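DM from R.C. (forwarded with permission)

"hey, sorry to bug you on a friday — could you get me a structure for this? deadline for the figure draft is monday and I only need the backbone to look sensible"
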Amino acid sequence: YLLLPYFIIIRVQDTFFHVFIPSSLEGEVHYSAEEAVKFIEDRITEESKSSRHLRGPHLAKLELIRRLRRQGFNDEYKLGDPEELMFQYFKKFGDKPCCFTDLKVFVDLLPATQCTKFINQLLGVVPLSTPTEDELALPADVRALQRHLCVVQLTRLLGLYHTMDKNQKLSVVRELMLRYQHGLEFGKSCLKTELQFSDYYCLLAVHVLIDVWRETGDETAVWQALTLLEEGLTHSPSNAQFKLLLVRIYCVLGAFEPVVDLYSSLDAKHIQHDTIGYLLTRYAESLGQYAAASQSCNFALRFFHSNQKDTSEYIIQAYKYGAFEKIPEFIAFRNRLNNSLHFAQVRTERMLLDLLLEANISTSLAESIKSMNLRPEEDDIPWEALRDNRDLNVFFSWDPKDRDVSEEHKKLSLEEETMWLRIRSLTLRLISGLPSLNHPMEPRNSEKTTENGVSSRIDILRLLLQQLEVAMETGKTLLSPLFFQYPFLGPVPTRMAGFFSSGCSQCQTSSFYLVSDIYELDTSGLDVFSRCKGDLLEVKDGNLKTRPALLENLVFFVETISIILWVSSYCESVLRPYKLNLQKKKKKKKETSIIMPPVFTSFQDYVTGLQTLISNVVDHIKGLETHLIALKLEELILEDTSLSLEERKFSKTVQGKVQSSYLHSLLEIGELLKKRLETTKKLKI
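My reply, with the result:
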């Protein structure tokens, strides 16, 4: 009986489908649009006589109107006015949490000019207290609260909040938070695992604040959004949306430290490590938290590797118990995860991270490459079969269609992600080819050189370098018209834009040209360093301002310096025996006329310049740490008289987390750079 509404909807949809396909495979159509209308009316009549209200018949009526309108039929008037039908539906079911999601799919039936009138009509039947000068009109019970909450959600969905100016939006935020605080009274008996009835008020307020931040650049709004979310989380510790939004905002601000615990508390299960894992792994390394990044990558890879083992076991069990029809499903699922875009990204980034932290520090580059079983000529990423398993609708959204995540956004995001993966994969393969170029000196026309495969290895690297340049040019083309067009709650942009704008792309490409371009590397490095200068966190006009892009530029700088040092190490391995050979000839022939080529002096000058550059960056990072520690954030909070005691407490928590995360990132970046500085001191010919 409870499933009757769904059977009705299915029956009506099937009937209606045949109305518009006369040449159905099932034969002649026996139902017309008029009969479909009559069928629904009969169901509604039956429902009106029942003591239990059923949603199905009413939704079927709206669905039929939508389909008739889409197909250009003129019979929709027989079913009534959509606005009135939705109003009547709200009167019957407005106190149910599902009312909003039921009506959400039909709001496009409303004319744009009628939206305000429709919302006012709904508000007119919501039982609220009489408003006074000091108090809002508030609901007296949970059912009334649910009705009002449904109206607020529809208000945002219809775009009425988006047409407001900044002050009006901030006024809406204040009202929503007052309603949220009032709604907490109804949830005092809720368990910690349950959500508060008024949580959506808080979420909606945060969404409006994000609008203000994105549209005006006013960071006060984003700090307030974080404060509200942290406060909401204390009342609803199990609210996944609060946690996801905190993860997203902290990452955008460049603070990764608080994100690790937040993501862990989401308690993601199985496939979710693939569908929402990108929210964590995208920012792990790029914000300088190398230890946390390593842990995050390991966690993700553990899931993918265990899946390969588990699905094999499922297939064996299916054979064993004769469930043969399940075997194709298990194989398809295994392939879906093996070909996951996220899997390929994490695997590539993990290997680059391991090289960054260990190569030529604790182990040689050659040993690191060998332990990873990397070969420059091998590409193990299934480019043609890659599957985008990301859940890009993981965030609740009440945005109108023109502002929400669209299929176009998803398509563009996939192209961007794939191109960035290609750039990173080619970079990794180029690095893996450096140790294989170390070989004994032989005449250029020697057959032995060809037999040893050295020429072919050089050709492979040259080919990879050409592919890298093509990929970078394609990436720039992708970004030029599209960057920053994703909705905030939609796809997460890749690091590609920062890679290009920081100058690291050109510097890394130049480094792979080896000796021919090696004299320009220290100059390029200085140019990259100039984009890393500035304060991460500063107080400006009484407001706290963040510059997370500087942190990402520093991370790119460290990565670029590491690549340059690996290339320089190769150059040293070629130049040192060449110099020794010349010195031996000079001693043997006892001639003073043999002049040493200028490349040796130039290389040593270059290494000295590189040491100076890295030392300057290390000093700059120390200065950033000193500035961060000296910031008196508590005084800034106390000066803001508009905040309540509770809000001040959570503001202090939020700002403290961001400050601590920045310090942690700078500490790890600084320590890694010091190790790289020690490496440069060993570059001698």
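R.C.: lifesaver. Residues 1-24, 439-449, 451-455, 515-523 have pLDDT under 50 and may be disordered.
me: no worries. The beta strands are 537-540, 543-546.
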